[in-house]
Every structure is written in structure tokens, then in C-alpha cells.
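Quiz preparation item.
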């Protein structure tokens, strides 16, 4: 029987993610699947050792003296774990069958003896309800195990030699050099089909699914990383078009400072970032998904559109504790307090998304009505304080109003002349309004009428065309951000207090990629490339980004992986592949 403390959390940089568009699993260096929610992203976890709970599916060398490595197969979320032991080399090919079934998670694990004899220990302990429901009704028939855990049905194939002491399935697989062994775990909230999964066919379908979905990205300066980031975004996006912000909950941005949230939901802003990024690359499926989801929310909720939804378009649950110890330094709160917020900038980002779609002739009539709804919402609510891009206290944030001006300008280019002129005039009024109450005496933008600090979010309105990069306000803001918020090749959101930047929070990788694009836009391509490369390297071993990066400790911080950082890397790799635009524009 596995010790409850056997599979402890790792530092985040060592985790790989498997995903199928419906759910994700986090895989640690000991072959331990430490996190997976079933059937969907925001449902309860069946593997929760990541947060100190029970439930795990591990394939680990029996020789405890090993070193770990691994890599993704190019342009996929198929991971290959690799262990070098004192006896030889073992690999385990890992994936969630792709594309995912809305009710049934199918985990594929193929153990291979690459060099010498392979011997691995397998532990299967599916525990629904964040680890609170042990497996029951365990039965074995010719190597096929079935069980129940809470409301979920379980089937494990490839476990002929297994035993189930204490309700956990355990066994050892021993293979001669050159041979492989398949394990297939199914977890479903509906009755499992009678037909068993055929590993060879399912692996082939999964490979084909990824290769069909992920482009080459030869029009970028980093095609390999662009493909990987796109695969991450594809894996976080379901058939209904919604993309979750991250696969996890409760991972701390700063230890014991209560900055740990549940990101297993679809944020409007984040989805818009992704849509604009892929449109820049002229790759449209994820753009279409984003437009479909965001337009539906606007048509349903209009000016009351919420900042985030479940992937089904429902209300995000309020915060509640699920009764786990939490990741070290974090907590185990599910749900999110975002329901209580108004975020004006989301309407501007939606217009930028719709403009990118219209630019590529991918906006239908109903979606144009959604764009009109977003513009109307800005007209009605632009004077209200909002939580802003960083989801803080309510203020009349400069960034929120300027990004709305950028969105109005962008969508106005695709509107009939009269409507376009109205939206352009609306954008002019917004900029005049911001200039009146948020222009710092030094000539740069400040965060809000009551906060004179500079903010890295203020790069984005210029990138999106609210003002020209040569405008004195844009130039002064860019220089202030570089002077006050940059350190050691990384960028921070804003100064929290008088402490050094890195003592208050991690560097924000989204902001670092934004600065690379802003410098490129301002005809500083060499400096832009330096910023791009510095931030591109701030990932874990599998190439996955979190929201924040602890520069001093070289550690990832926050929920994992963070979709909008992958989108920013993708967009920057595309923008920097071109000569700086002579007219200084990087609109959506």
C-alpha cells in the first residue's frame, strides 16, 4: 500500500501537463500524476497530492537511485518521461487521449525499456471529491480492473499482476530491453462503454489529433516554442470554445500571503489575449473559439458581462475551502471572488478580439451584434470605477479606459462609416477624459486619478493602437516603465511598496513579453529581442510558464500553466519576426 506521504509536491518547474481540452493532469518527475479534475476543469479533483490530498496514478522506477528527464513530442501535449537508473534507461510515454471526451478521461501510459531491463512500480489510487472518496467495488477480470469512487466509474487495463491492498491498485511491471507495456486508465461520470480502449489505435488517434491542430509557425522567431505554446493553449480550450486561464487552483504567487486563486475558469480578458495572438500568426481555429465564446457571453449578459465564467458559460462558484492542506505556502480554496467584480477593460479587449476576427473575415452577423453590445457597454459604464486588469480595488483605472479606446478604434475600422465615426469619437472622448485626470506631471500616464505610480499594463493600449507610440505620452510612459519597473531583464507590474521589486512579488512574464513588443514597435529591435529571450527562458523544464517568475530563486510562481503568458510569448515571437512597423502600430 502506498504511503499517504509518498508523493509529495515538487517545485512547479518540474511538472509537465497533459491535457485534452476538457481537463488536464499534472505529471511530476517521479511519474506521479498529482492533479486531475473529472469530468471537467472546474469539477472536483481525483488526483490531489499537488495540494496535499490523496489520489495519485504513479509509474516510478523501483530502483530509487535514478535521475529524471523528459520532453514533449513536438507540437503536442504527449510527454515522454525518461529515467536513467543504475540498471539502464526507462521511458514512459504519457497522454490524455485527444481530443477529450466530455464525460470520460482516458489516460494513456506506455512504459518502454530503452536500455537494459525496465522495472517500475505502478500505483493507482483514484479518489473523487478532492481525495475524500476511496475506491470501492474493486473487481479484476483478466487484467482489467473496475472500481467506483464517489459518483465516478473507473477502469484500468494492463494490470494483470495487480493486487489491491487497502483499496489501492499496486503492481510491478518488468520488461526486457526493447519491449513496452500499455496502461490505460478511464475515469468517467457516466457508464463506461463495454468496448475496451485499444492502446495502439488510441495513441495513433491522439498523435493525429495534435498534428492536425498545431501549425508549424515558421512565420515566428521561435517556431518550436511557438508550437509548444499553441499546444498548451489548444489543450486548455474545449470544443465549446472556452479556454481556462490555467489548469490548477491554489498555487501561491507568494508563500503565506493569501495570493493563491482558482484559475480553472474562462476569463474573458485572457481568451481575448489568445484570440488576438493567434490572429497575428494567421492561425484561426483558436481565434474562432475565442470569438464564439466571448460573443455568446456579451449577447447573453450585455453590459453586465462577468469577468469570468465556467467553461459551460455558467457562474463561477464563490470561494470555498475544499479541506486540503494546500500546496506549501498556499491554500485549498476552490471558486473565485471574480463574480463580485466589474472589469471595464474586458469590453475593450472583446472589441480588439472582434476587430482581429473582422480583419480576417471571420466575424458573422451575430458576433457583430456582440461587438455593438461591447461598445454600448463602454458608453454606459466607462465612468464607473472597476477592478482593472490586475483585479484590485475599484478605481477609474487608466489602463481600463485606454484599452477601451483602443478597442473602439480597432472595431471602428470595420464598421459602416457613420458607426465607425461614432466609435472613433467615443475613443477620442475616452482619451481626453484620461488625459484630464491621469496624466502625470512628468508627461506619462499614471495608474489612476488617485495613484501616481506607473503600471506595466499601460504598455498594452499603445500596442493596440489607442495612441501612437510616438505620442509624447506613450514615449514618456514606456521610458518610465523601463526605469521604474524593469530589473535584471524582467518586468514587474507596479511598485507595491518601497522594497526592491522582487521582494514584493515575482516578475510578470506577460509584461515582459509586452515590453519586448513595445520596444519592437518603437524601432528598438535588438533590445526587444533581448527582452523576448530573457522572458522566454523563464519556464520550467517542460517549457511551461506560470504567471510570475521568482527571479532570485529562478522558480515558477502561481497557477500552472498560465494561458495568457503562452499567448504573449506566441504573439511576441510573431511580431518580432517582422521589421518594426514604420508607422509604429501593432493593433489587433
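Solution:
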Amino acid at each position: 500500500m502506498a504511503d499517504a506521504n509518498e508523493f509529495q509536491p515538487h517545485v512547479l518547474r518540474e511538472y509537465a501537463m497533459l491535457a485534452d481540452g476538457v481537463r488536464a493532469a499534472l505529471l511530476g518527475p517521479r511519474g506521479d500524476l498529482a492533479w486531475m479534475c473529472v469530468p471537467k476543469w472546474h469539477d472536483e479533483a481525483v488526483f490531489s497530492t499537488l495540494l496535499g490530498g490523496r489520489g495519485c496514478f504513479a509509474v516510478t522506477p523501483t530502483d530509487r537511485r535514478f535521475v529524471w528527464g523528459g520532453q514533449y513530442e513536438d507540437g503536442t501535449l504527449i510527454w515522454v518521461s525518461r529515467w536513467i537508473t543504475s540498471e539502464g534507461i526507462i521511458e514512459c510515454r504519457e497522454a490524455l487521449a485527444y481530443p477529450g471526451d466530455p464525460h470520460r478521461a482516458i489516460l494513456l501510459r506506455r512504459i518502454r525499456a530503452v536500455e537494459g531491463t525496465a522495472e517500475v512500480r505502478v500505483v493507482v489510487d483514484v479518489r473523487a471529491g478532492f481525495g475524500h472518496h476511496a475506491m470501492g467495488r474493486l473487481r479484476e477480470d483478466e487484467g482489467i480492473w473496475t472500481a467506483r469512487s464517489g459518483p465516478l466509474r473507473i477502469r484500468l487495463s494492463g494490470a494483470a499482476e495487480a493486487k489491491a491492498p487497502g483499496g489501492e491498485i499496486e503492481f510491478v511491471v518488468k520488461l526486457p530491453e526493447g519491449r513496452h507495456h500499455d496502461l490505460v486508465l478511464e475515469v468517467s461520470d457516466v457508464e463506461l462503454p463495454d468496448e475496451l480502449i485499444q492502446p495502439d489505435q488510441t495513441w495513433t488517434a491522439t498523435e493525429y489529433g495534435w498534428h492536425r491542430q498545431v501549425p508549424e509557425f515558421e512565420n515566428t522567431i521561435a517556431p518550436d516554442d511557438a508550437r509548444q505554446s499553441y499546444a498548451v493553449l489548444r489543450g486548455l480550450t474545449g470544443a465549446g470554445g472556452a479556454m481556462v486561464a490555467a489548469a490548477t487552483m491554489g498555487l501561491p504567487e507568494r508563500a503565506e500571503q493569501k495570493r493563491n486563486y482558482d484559475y480553472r475558469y474562462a476569463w474573458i480578458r485572457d481568451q481575448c489575449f489568445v484570440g488576438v495572438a493567434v490572429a497575428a500568426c494567421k492561425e484561426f481555429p483558436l481565434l474562432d473559439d475565442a470569438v464564439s465564446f466571448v460573443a455568446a457571453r456579451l449577447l447573453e449578459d450585455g453590459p453586465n458581462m462577468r469577468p469570468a465564467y465556467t467553461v459551460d458559460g455558467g457562474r463561477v462558484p464563490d470561494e470555498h475551502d475544499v479541506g486540503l492542506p494546500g500546496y506549501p505556502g498556499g491554500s485549498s480554496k476552490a471558486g473565485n471572488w471574480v463574480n463580485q467584480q466589474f472589469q471595464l477593460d474586458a469590453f475593450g479587449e472583446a472589441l480588439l478580439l472582434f476587430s482581429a476576427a473582422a480583419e480576417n473575415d471571420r466575424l458573422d452577423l451575430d458576433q457583430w451584434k456582440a461587438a455593438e453590445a461591447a461598445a454600448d457597454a463602454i458608453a454606459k459604464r466607462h465612468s464607473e470605477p472597476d477592478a482593472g486588469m490586475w483585479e484590485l480595488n475599484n478605481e477609474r483605472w487608466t489602463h481600463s479606459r485606454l484599452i477601451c479606446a483602443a478597442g473602439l478604434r480597432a472595431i471602428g475600422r470595420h464598421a459602416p462609416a457613420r458607426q465607425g465615426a461614432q466609435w472613433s469619437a467615443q475613443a477620442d472622448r475616452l482619451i481626453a477624459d484620461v488625459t484630464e485626470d491621469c496624466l502625470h506631471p512628468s508627461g506619462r500616464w499614471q495608474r489612476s486619478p488617485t495613484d501616481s505610480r506607473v503600471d506595466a499594463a499601460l504598455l498594452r493600449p499603445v500596442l493596440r493602437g489607442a495612441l501612437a507610440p510616438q505620442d509624447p505620452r506613450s514615449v514618456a510612459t514606456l521610458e518610465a516603465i523601463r526605469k521604474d519597473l524593469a530589473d535584471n531583464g524582467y518586468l514587474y507590474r507596479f511598485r507595491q511598496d518601497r522594497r526592491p521589486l522582487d521582494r514584493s512579488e515575482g516578475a510578470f512574464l506577460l509584461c515582459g513579453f509586452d515590453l519586448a513588443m513595445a520596444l519592437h514597435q518603437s524601432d528598438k529591435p535588438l533590445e526587444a529581442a533581448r527582452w523576448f529571450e530573457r522572458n522566454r527562458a523563464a519556464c520550467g523544464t517542460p517549457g511551461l510558464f506560470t504567471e510570475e517568475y521568482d527571479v532570485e530563486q529562478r522558480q515558477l510562481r502561481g497557477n500552472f500553466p498560465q494561458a495568457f503568458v503562452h499567448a504573449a510569448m506566441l504573439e511576441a515571437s510573431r511580431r518580432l519576426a517582422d521589421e518594426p512597423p514604420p508607422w509604429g502600430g501593432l493593433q489587433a
